[in-house]
Each structure stands twice: as C-alpha cells, then as structure tokens.
Amino acid sequence: MAEDEDNNKSRLLRAEIKRLRKTLSELTPSLEALLKRRGFRIYKKEPSEDLVLPAKRFLDDFYEMLKKYSFRLFIRDVIKHQEYFTKEQVTRYATSDVTDAYVDFLLSVKVVEPAGDGFRLIKRPIKSFGETLEWFLCEIFRREFAAESAWGVKFKRPRVGGDYDVIAKIDGSILYMEVKSSPPRQIYNSEVAAFLDRTFDLSPEIAVFFMDTELRMKDKIVPMFEEELKKRFTSPPPVARIEKELFQIWNKTFIINSKDSVAGNIEKVLSWHFRAGRKERA
Fold first, then answer.
1. What is the pLDDT of residues 74-109, one digit of tens each?
2. Rounded distance, CA 142 to CA 144, Å?
3. CA-CA distance, 89 to 188, in Å (whole number)?
4. What residues contact 126, with CB distance under 8 A and at least 6 apart?
5. CA dist list (Å): 249 to 55, 202, 253, 258, 269
6. Coil, strand, or helix at residue 261?
7. CA dihedral sign of residues 109, 112, 113, 114
8. How many other CB atoms are found less than 10 A from the CB of residue 230?
9. Distance of CA 220 to the CA centre of its chain
10. DSSP state of 220
C-alpha cells in the first residue's frame, strides 16, 4: 500500500515537472533563437529517406515499442534482411515467442508485409537504423521532457561539418546529443574527436555521447575520450563515473548507454548537470 502511494506521488511529481518545463519552454527563447545567438542557423533537418516508421496513427504504439532494447535490436535485423526475412533470421536477441509478437506488431502497423514464406520491409531500401534511432531519441525529449528538439540537423559551418544528431532546448539551455547505433567495437577515435569538435564549436550547456548498447563503456569508449582529451589539454579533465555506465566530464559532457532505460539515463544526466550547476553557484 505504501509502495503504491510512493509510486503515485512519484508519477504526480514527474507530471508536474513536465508541466513546469513546458511552461518554461514557452516563456524562454525558441531553440532556433538560442542557436542563432551562437551563430548557428539550421538549413537542413530531419531527413526521412531512411526512417522506418508506421503511419501517424500508429506512432504512439511504435514509440512505446522502441523503448525496448530487444525490439530495437530486432528492427536492426529486419533492416539487415529487408528484402526478405523469416522469423528465424530475426530471432537472435529475443525468444521465438517475443519475436513472433514483434513480427505481428510490424504487420499490424504496416511496416512489414508478407513475402512468400517470410516477410519484407514495405519501405525499401533503408540504409541503416540510424535515422530511426535519432527520431526516437528526439521523441524522448519531446514526450518525456517537454523539450523542443530536432534531429538530423545540419548547419552551414565552414569549420566543423557533419550532422548534429539531436539538438534540444532544456530549460533555456541547448543540449547536443551524438547518437550511435553501432556497438563499441565499431566506434573509432575519429568519431569521438568529431563529437568533441562539434561540442566545442556549438558550446551547448549539455553534450551527450549516447550509444545504443548495454555493453560496458569503460572498456573502450571511455579510454578513447581520455586519449582524445589528452591531445587537447595539457591538464585534461577526468572522465568520472556517475553510476554504472554513465560518465561525465566537467559536469556538462556525458557518455551514456541504453542499459536499464534510455529515458531514465537521460533524466539522470539532466539531474546531475543541473544539480552540479547549483552547487557551483552556491
């Protein structure tokens, strides 16, 4: 009984925080205005060529499904075998019963269709899961944190190129997130360097290097950051653990994965950043 009461209070508190953030967002300058103050103007965003999404009426259900790590892994396999796949080909990361349910879901929201004895993606070709993952992260900011956000953003900047995967306005601050769908073994030093280049150029209040994996970040990703920071600073800042596989640099640059909950990890990062800021001002 007491546990139910606590859970109810927690839900109400989260709802109130979300409402206050939405109100604050409406009272503060737009994301576009905040970027303009830094000399950044969006000229392209949110490409749709490689999005794997259902019709609008199914988006809420699809978004909820994407919260499941096993479903995101399943979607990657579907994209890999997009011309034709059987259930056996996409059952690497879940039980056969769960995979059956996932396939039935994609059929019901018209993302896949029957093809002979198997199935295929209705929208083809799709290069990768990357754009869909960026869309999902952007939706998390919009839905869970009442934050104005955009994904797949390109700026006309001569010094630093590349996409800014997700940009969000959090309580009047800019957040930049680099989104990686590849496992740690497929991430290279050049990608960490490019993330830091874009972070220093944009100067967001919060920067997040996110990897959609439940594998350890300490083994390869954190050492790559430490190595890159040594190249840039005579006295490099430490890469400190917050908890589990969440790390921070300067209380404003974060390295996170999707272990436990993507939205939950983002919430921990935001809480850490704003609490650290309050301590510095005290």
1. 999 999 999 999 999 999 888 999 999 999 999 999
2. 6
3. 29
4. 50, 52, 79, 82
5. 40, 17, 5, 19, 11
6. coil
7. negative
8. 11
9. 20
10. T
Answer whether the bond into residue 125 is a cis peptide, omega within 30°: yes
The tokens describing 187, both together, are 């991430």
Helix (H, G, I), strand (E, B) or coil at 215: coil
DSSP β-bridge partners for residue 250? none
pLDDT digits (tens, 9 = 90+) for 203-254: 999 999 999 999 999 999 999 999 999 999 999 999 999 999 999 999 999 9
Pair 251, 237: CB distance under 8 Å: no
Token pair, residue 140, equals: 């998390």
3-state secondary structure (DSSP) of residue 155 = strand
Two structure tokens written together for 261: 């909950």
50: closest CA among 158, 133, 113?
Answer: 133
Give the C-alpha separation, 206 to 199, whole Å: 9
- CATH class in words for 24-48+129-281: alpha beta
The predicted-structure confidence for 252-264, as pLDDT tens digits, reads as follows 999 999 999 999 9
d(CA 241, CA 172): 26
User: CA 82 to CA 2: how far, in whole Å?
Assistant: 49
The Cα 36–Cα 48 span in angstroms is 25
198 CB-near residues (< 8 Å, 6+ apart): 160, 162, 164, 176, 178
The residue assigned the tokens 């970027």 is: 35
Q: Is the dihedral of CA 10, 12, 17, 21 positive or negative?
A: positive
How distant, in Å, are the alpha carbons of 21, 32, 171 from that of 28?
10, 11, 8
User: In a 10 Å sphere around its CB, with 0-12 CB exposed, 13-18 middle and 19+ buried, how is residue 24 labelled?
Assistant: middle
Could you tell me if 239 and 225 are in contact, meaning their C-beta atoms sit under 8 angstroms apart?
yes
CB crowding 67-95: b at 16 or more within 10 Å, else e: eebebbbbbbbbbeebeebeeeebbeebe
